[in-house]
Specification:
Distance between the termini: 67 Å
Structural class: alpha+beta
CATH class of the largest domain: Alpha Beta
CATH superfamily of the largest domain: Nucleotide cyclase, GGDEF domain
Shape: elongated
Number of helices: 11
Number of domains: 2
Low-confidence stretches: none
Helix content: 25-40%
Largest sheet: 8 strands, mixed
Bound molecules: flavin mononucleotide
Length: about 350
């Protein structure tokens, strides 16, 4: 048997009658499937413990995950191969803590409240593979370093140092919010993982099979940044919102590094350095043009849906041989003249 515990937030305002309805469906289905457990609700939060046959429980949890009456569902733990139930008597004992108060209930409410709040905070800071491991009931500290083929993407804002010197902090913050909002949404939307935010840039990776999706994420971000620049008023910092993107594909080591008191889940290897250096090439003129995104042959070979163009052979730091450099063959990746003179233009604004 298996036991699963999760916490979630109401998807919308739910009346006491609607909660009763969830309880009634749960009892009927769980009696049929031999599942037992508890469902607490309080201040728009659900906390549920479900236990029973593994296959039946997985099917039930799949239905629960797709239920729009709640959202932000976070599995707190899975216990496999349990031999005894905690709640053998209850098909689904539902307790609405909002209707109860008292010296025993109030501390429980406070604990559950703190659990959800802390979880929401930690979620924003935690790498997706770590959250996925916790969701699957595994200990993420056991994720040892292993070799994997990945697509690696680096991005950096142009002239961020000058922007911070010239514009007030609140304005720089606004620009960063828009840059990170556009790039992170696009990366996550295309199946990528954001590995690190570097202050004025980021590192992300995609499964090796998602080369076209990775490029699509970058093209989408470039489009969003252009729209923001075009919408910006004359004095607005967003006129200067430019970023470069470098992409490669290769074998890297993925997993936990550090010690048990301070762990980081990250990627290591030559391909990571190459992606960072490729990103640096977006500051250079290549054949009289400056490109917002460039990549090497390793990545180019994986692209199927987008036409690409060889820009030439260039020397990059850390490599003894020149590399073939590519960009998507489309005009929207060529940066306007403003980008090449950005520093001067920001200073003279
Ligand atoms: C917080 C919450 C807990 C739920 N718990 C259960 C449950 O324990 N068992 C169950 O069958 N359905 C549960 N549901 C309902 C399922 O999401 C789904 O609506 C239901 O299983 C569909 O059953 P039906 O196909 O018989 O209509 C829960 C829903 C919510 C929002």
């Amino acid at each position: 048997m298996k036991r699963l515990t999760y916490i979630s937030r109401f998807g919308r305002e739910l009346s006491a009658a609607e909660i009763d309805e969830i309880a009634a469906t749960s009892i009927t289905n769980n009696q049929r499937d031999g599942l037992t457990g508890m469902l607490f609700c309080f201040r728009q939060v659900f906390y549920q413990i479900l236990e029973g046959d593994e296959e039946k429980l997985d099917k039930c949890y799949a239905r629960i995950l797709g239920d729009p009456r709640h959202k932000d569902i976070f599995c707190l733990g899975i216990e496999e191969n349990i031999s005894e139930r905690l709640y053998p008597e209850w098909s689904m004992k539902t307790v609405n803590l909002d209707l109860d108060s008292g010296s025993t209930i109030d501390p429980v409410k406070r604990i559950l409240d703190a659990l959800l709040r802390n979880h929401q905070i930690l979620k924003a800071y935690t790498p997706t593979p770590i959250l996925d491991a916790i969701q699957a009931g595994k200990d993420p500290r056991a994720l040892t370093v292993r070799p994997e083929e990945k697509i690696i993407l680096f991005s950096d804002l142009f002239s961020s140092t000058t922007l911070t010197e010239v514009f007030p902090a609140a304005e720089v913050n606004r620009l960063l919010d828009i840059y990170y909002g556009a790039s992170i949404d696009s990366i996550l939307g295309m199946g990528g993982t954001v590995s690190k935010l570097t202050g004025d840039g980021l590192m992300a990776y995609f499964p090796a099979s998602l080369a076209d999706r990775a490029l699509e994420a970058v093209l989408h971000t470039i489009k969003r940044l252009k729209e923001e620049r075009e919408m910006a008023a004359h004095a607005d910092i967003l006129r200067f919102l430019f970023a470069g993107f470098g992409i490669t594909a290769g074998k890297v080591l993925v997993g936990n590094i550090g010690t048990i008191s301070r762990l980081d889940y990250t990627l290591l290897g030559d391909a990571v350095n190459s992606a960072a250096r490729l990103e640096g090439l977006t500051r250079r003129m290549i054949g009289g043009k400056q490109y917002a995104v460039v990549f090497d042959q390793n990545f180019q070979q994986k692209i199927q849906e987008f036409p690409t163009r060889k820009l030439g052979r260039v020397m990059v730091k850390g490599k003894s041989q020149p590399i073939d450099l590519y960009a998507p063959d489309r005009p929207d990746v060529i940066l306007p003249e403003l980008a090449s003179q950005l520093k001067e233009k920001i200073m003279a604004r």
